[in-house]
TrEMBL record, chain A:
Region named Disordered: 286-312
Major subcellular location class: membrane
GO CC annotations on file: ATP-binding cassette (ABC) transporter complex
Family as reported in the entry's similarity comment: Belongs to the ABC-3 integral membrane protein family.
SUPFAM superfamilies found in the cross-reference section: ABC transporter involved in vitamin B12 uptake, BtuC
Biological process terms in GO annotation: response to zinc ion; transmembrane transport
Residue ranges, compositional bias (Basic and acidic residues): 291-312
Name of protein: Metal ABC transporter permease
Keyword entries, A-Z: Membrane, Transmembrane, Transmembrane helix, Transport
Matches recorded under CDD domains: TM_ABC_iron-siderophores_like
């Protein structure tokens, strides 16, 4: 069986659709979570959802449904604990984190299911995705996308400055809960492809990648969704291609793919930021003393290799930390 | 108190505020009339921000009542009429955003859900950027700006909402004199349009000619409420002035230090 044959298989097509939707939805809500500086929120919810899956296995209910219910409850609980602010938000998150994972493993054992069953949910599994799952994933992903795109001005205001948003008349608590619930929903959406333990990576890593190159919130948002799609579809195909030789779960492959994209854009981002700082025009300041440079070894120009930065009506050449402005035959220190 | 008058932007009626059970504001009475600019002065920790946060509904009131435009705070719904510049707030979040995006978020109170940006939104944002002199940096990342420039972004964000009542908590902290002057000009324009302004400040500087009234806070109560004072004079005010009744009965606790300032002195 070749790689192309593999793509024509039903379960593979289902997995691709699920991966694409996941790659869109998770970074969309992830952008607002990162904006709120709650990058690890997704992890907390993901761990709580493990208990949800286990409860599904125990009771014979659909693990997807039980996961979504428990994840939403966990997200709301985290939001409440954070808002009450009496315990450190971090600690509250950690408590749910460990409780969720321990509870999940314990209950799975009680349900008489082995680690293998749980593993499909922890790290994603291609052939566990049914047609009903795809439909379910599509509906949830659509809900997440419509709400994050449609409410982005409101969510942006709340995520950047809660006090300001409240005085502007927004129901801040409602929007905070919405963000938490949407995060829980996208986590259950991503459960089948990436797995609960790694799902949060798909909310955070594409955003981190995208903000290397973007300067605006909107560009970061769109870029993160793009990176998310490329990483999840690409990672899925890669893991399928590799599966002829070794047994690789799609989740880790997708996450490593996203991290590879981050690693690739990081130096570019560093360079871009450095350049934009370097090339920002110098402010106009009157009454600076006139000083000319010492003996100047060469003539500044287009190809001298020193950055030419606008300064009022002329340019300054940045030379060894000095600003040289042409003045007749010599250069002035600006 | 008489029946609520919808034209009075701010009324605080014997307001007490506690934070974590500890009383911070005690029996504060304050009325700000439409079109007035009132400055709140007072040392660090005297309760200026607490007062401002109580009147914007950010802190619950333990006793007394706050009315905005004649409506008790709990029933108040016209939040798009209020503009707010929080103290020491930061314009940056975990994700990069441009100056224009942050300023545009000031329109959020006037936007309907799930609607695209209107032309009115855009022009309000552009004119707010103009006012704080950041038009040429509108597409720069906020995190690349200096602290004072970021402060101006927050002021523009509040101005973008075209508020009828603008509440600013130390908007000029870290802002240089030319830009304080620019802010003063902006507030003058806003005032000419009939807006009411409540300004918390430590330095008044170029705002002085705009000010109609000064309120000095001290240790959680109003120590002075009357004609404009400069910061220097206000810092010598240890006298609880009881609502324009010269020599009137003063039942507030007195601070033991001798007061060396009396209302009516040149200030
Ligand atoms: N979150 C809080 N928790 C407990 N006490 C607080 C809190 N915020 C303020 N306080 C207390 O309330 C009092 C008034 O603080 P407030 O912030 O209103 O002062 P301020 O006049 O705005 O001072 P500044 O000039 O420093 O801004 C202070 O004594 C402070 O200790
Ligand atoms: Mg303050």
């Amino acid at each position: 069986m070749s790689f192309i044959d593999l793509l024509s298989l039903d379960f593979m097509q289902r997995a691709l659709v699920a991966a694409l939707l996941t790659g869109l939805a998770a970074p969309a809500i992830g952008t607002f979570i990162v904006q709120r500086r709650l990058a690890l929120l997704g992890d907390g919810i993901g761990h709580v959802a493990v208990t949800g899956v286990a409860l599904g296995l125990l009771t014979g209910a659909s693990p997807t449904w039980s996961a979504i219910v428990v994840a939403v409850l966990g997200a709301v609980l985290m939001e409440v604990i954070r808002e009450r602010g009496h315990t450190n938000g971090d600690v509250a998150l950690a408590l749910l984190f460990y409780g969720g994972l321990a509870g999940g493993v314990l209950i799975t054992g009680i349900a008489g299911q082995g680690a293998a069953t749980l593993q499909a949910y922890l790290f994603g599994s291609l052939n566990s995705i049914s047609f009903a799952d795809v439909v379910f994933t599509a509906i949830l992903a659509a809900v997440v996308l419509v709400l994050t795109l449609g409410l982005s001005p409101q969510l942006f205001a709340v995520a950047s400055d809660q006090d300001f948003a409240r005085v502007a008349g927004l129901r801040v608590r409602g929007y905070n809960l919405l963000i938490a619930v949407l995060a829980a929903v996208s986590i259950t959406v991503a459960m089948r492809t990436v797995g609960l333990l790694l799902v949060s990576a798909l909310m955070v890593v594409p955003v981190a990648t995208s903000q290397q190159l973007a300067r605006s919130f909107r560009a970061t948002f769109v870029g993160a969704m793009l990176v998310g799609c490329v990483a999840s579809v690409g990672g899925l195909l890669l893991s399928a291609a590799l599966s002829f030789r070794v047994d690789v779960a799609p989740g880790p492959t997708i996450v490593l793919m996203a991290l590879a994209m981050f690693t690739a854009t990081w130096p570019i981002g560093v360079w871009l930021r450095r350049r934009s700082r370097l090339m920002a025009p110098f402010p106009e300041v009157s009454a600076a003393p006139h000083r000319s440079t010492d003996q100047h070894p060469h003539e500044h120009g287009k190809d001298c290799g020193h950055p030419a930065v606008p300064h009022a009506d002329h340019v300054d050449y940045v030379h060894d930390g000095h600003r040289h402005a042409p003045h007749g035959e010599h250069y002035d220190e600006h | 108190m008489t029946s609520p008058d919808t034209s009075v932007p701010v009324v605080l009626d014997r307001v007490s505020v506690a934070i974590g059970g500890r009383p911070i504001l005690r029996d504060v009475d304050l009325t700000v009339h439409a079109g007035d600019m009132v400055t709140l002065l007072g040392p660090n920790g005297s309760g200026k921000s607490t007062l401002v946060r109580a009147l914007t509904g950010l802190l619950p009131v333990a006793r007394g009542e706050v009315r905005l435009f004649g409506t008790p705070l709990d029933d108040f719904g016209d939040w798009q009429r209020i503009g707010f510049v929080p103290q020491r707030s930061t314009a940056t979040g975990g994700v990069p955003a441009t100056v224009r995006e942050v300023v545009a978020s000031g329109r959020v109170g006037r936007r309907r859900l799930l609607r695209p940006t209107s032309a009115a939104d855009r022009s309000a944002v552009e004119s707010a950027l103009e006012v704080v002199g950041l038009s040429d940096r509108a597409s720069h990342g906020v995190s690349q700006l200096s602290g004072g420039q970021q402060q101006r972004v927050l002021i523009a964000r509040a101005l973008a909402g075209e508020p009828d009542l603008l509440v600013l908590d130390e908007p000029t902290a870290g802002v240089d004199l030319p830009n304080q002057q620019a802010l003063a000009d902006a507030l003058r324009q806003l005032k000419e349009r009939g807006a009411t302004i409540v300004l918390v400040a430590h330095e008044i500087g170029p705002m002085m000619p705009l000010i109609d009234r000064t309120v000095v806070m001290r240790d959680g109560w109003v120590a002075y409420d009357g004609p404009p004072l400069t910061q220097e004079v206000a810092s010598h005010t240890h006298h609880h002035h009881d609502h324009d009744v010269p020599g009137g009965h003063d039942h507030a606790p007195h601070v033991s230090s001798p007061f060396d300032w009396e209302r009516g002195n040149p200030g």
